[in-house]
């Protein structure tokens, strides 16, 4: 019984570790997406301001 509990605890640790790695990867992706969207938005505003009326 004790071995089964230890094995279960190790499995939960592995799942938690993998979930943390996935969250970190997703945070990096979302930061990159936000950066690109912000860059595009800034570029669009610059284009609008330089366009003749």
TrEMBL record:
Name the InterPro entries for this protein: T_SNARE_dom (IPR000727)
Protein name per UniProt: t-SNARE coiled-coil homology domain-containing protein
Domain (T-SNARE coiled-coil homology) spans: 1-36
């Amino acid at each position: 019984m004790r071995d089964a509990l230890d094995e279960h605890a190790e499995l939960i640790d592995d799942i938690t570790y993998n979930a943390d790695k996935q969250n970190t990867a997703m945070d990096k992706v979302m930061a990159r997406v936000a950066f690109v969207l912000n860059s595009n938005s800034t570029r669009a505003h610059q284009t609008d301001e330089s366009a003749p009326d």
